[in-house]
Amino acid sequence: MSSIAEYAFWNRCASDFRFFAQHLLKIRLTNDSGFSRGKPIVPFWPLSPEQEAIVSWVEECIARGIPVRIIVDKCRKLGMSTLIEALLYWLCCFRQEFQAVVIAQATTPAKKILEIAQRFDRKLPPDVHEQIGAKHPLPANGLSWKEDWGSNFTVMTQRSEETARGGDPNALHISELGLWHKRRATISDEDAMTSLLDSLGDSSGTFGFIESTACGQVGTFYDRYVRAQAKWNDERVPFEDKGWRPYFFTFQGVPKYSKDAGPEWEEKHAAALALHIAGDEAGAQRIATELRYCDDDNGSLWWERVLEYGLTASQMRWVLAKVEDHRGDVAVFDQEFPLTWQLSFVGSGRPVFPAGVIEQWTREASTVSYEAGTTLVDLGVATDLQGVGDAWRIWKRPEPGHEYTVGTDTATGDPEGDYCVIQVFDRHTREFVAEHYGRVPPDVLGQQAVVAASWYNRAVINPEENNDGGTTIRKILDLGYPHLQLRRPGLPMPADVQTNWRNLYGTQVTGANRNDLVNLLRENVRQKKVTFRSKRTLSEMTTFVYDRRSKPDHMLRTHSDGIFGAIHALYADYVLTSVEPLRPVEAPKTDEHWSIKARQERRAETIGRAEAEREGRRWKKKRSAR
């Protein structure tokens, strides 16, 4: 190799991880169970789509000059650890004094990770290893480069004493963080993570990777992943403040997680889908039962997932076999091979709202503009949106002739508590046109609900009565607003309204009616009978799930305030009389309408019509005289 070609080769290796991986890195293949004995050693190429996504974001962060922070919730055996070890090895080879630390949750996984990194080094061509490889003999817990280069690749377990002491790493790989809380004896997994990340700092040129399968709604992995999702889905957070980039990788689409179904299975699968599309759900479920998509243990769960996520016949054959391997426990399957990140943490049935519809509305919401402010102010002759902020988001102002309902969900207003929500629903267009989503005292929420309802054509307000909702209702009554949803419409009003008002107005959510109220919204969302534009409420829908007791509720440390505000607005629409049809709106008069010629023609037409009427009256008079 000429000196020029050699320089170009090394320069390309140092700047292009993909080139380095393709030409120099070797891995040993494994089977689906993770065993590698007897498997060949092959180049680390090509990268899988999941690995490509991670590398692309690393490259973008390096180009932007920002720290790399990635947190991954994934199914089993996607090669995430292999990829991250390859990235860290590459950085150690080409960045002087680079300190990479990998922390596994137990000794056996730590040994496997160490084997991956040491194999990268051992399988380098001899002339290449002489230039960039680690020094030999290799240390027991990683890789060390020559003293004049000073890089180190260290592998340890989360229970090592060195873990708590931290250090000054340039890169951290936290493996299987979801399991850490089960093995902590002294400090918590959150305290350990805080100490480790403090040692990493937040400067450019630092790399943080957290990857794990989920292990329930507990522990620091759950907390950190949910927070990362919330930040990345919140357009109010500036890009530079978003921090950890969340990724979720499902089994769907991974070639090894499918199994040839055969022509008969494929034909029945297609026939069931065709019957569903044609509206013959009974026929579709009959075939789905033959294919074991419906059974006594799980009902129609897998058939619903076929429709929801587009699972193919080959994927479903693999799924059913894998569920049998887990003794029919769908919760365990969802934890290890989830279809959505929410399912990975739920450990039970399914999300309440269809993910496909929510994803579509979320994409569409990014293209729709809105007015933003903190407070609606009634100016007497008009209503004004004031203040800097976006507690209020208004997508459509009131339309003449339209009927609206307003739903409220009240909280204490505590800065760390739940949100106080107002949802405005257009009964004619079936869309939510305005939303208040902030933390304000309950009486302020009532005042804002009255201003909003008055502005939106004297809309009916349906407040939630539970807990602090009584204060909101009291404020609405004190302001004299008359259009307040009755608890039991149609019953006569009692004489002691002033002392019994809390039992008369709004909706009280109880164990008896909670499922019915949620199902009202769920049906309208599933059938797309309504439209949402609020990313805040749509984000809540992604974390609103059925728990182990089949109760619909938000996941731990998430919210459902926007959802219940929408439910109350929709329930008011449900109990009200049918909406009045809109009257056609006359087109505005053009200049041609007021031209002299047009006015003369209209006058001649009017005179002609009047003359004809007079002639008719004369003819009737003559006839009666005969």
Alpha plus pi helix count: 23
- How many E strands? 19
Could you name the ranges where pLDDT drops below 50 across 5 or more consecutive residues?
none
Shape: elongated
- Which assembly state applies to the chains in this document? single chain
Structure in words:
- The chain is an alpha/beta fold.
- 44% of the residues lie in helices and 14% in strands.
- Helix 1 packs across helix 2, helix 16 (355-365) packs antiparallel against helix 21 and helix 20 (514-526) packs across helix 22.
- It is elongated, with a radius of gyration of 32 Å.
- The termini are far apart.
- The model has no long low-confidence stretch (mean pLDDT 88).
Give keywords:
626 residues; alpha/beta; seven-stranded mixed beta sheet; six-stranded mixed beta sheet; 14% strand; elongated
Question: Brief overview, please?
Answer:
By secondary structure, this protein is of the alpha/beta class. Helices cover 44% and strands 14% of the residues. The strands form five sheets. It has a seven-stranded mixed beta sheet with strand order 5-6-4-7-8-3-9, sandwiched between helices.
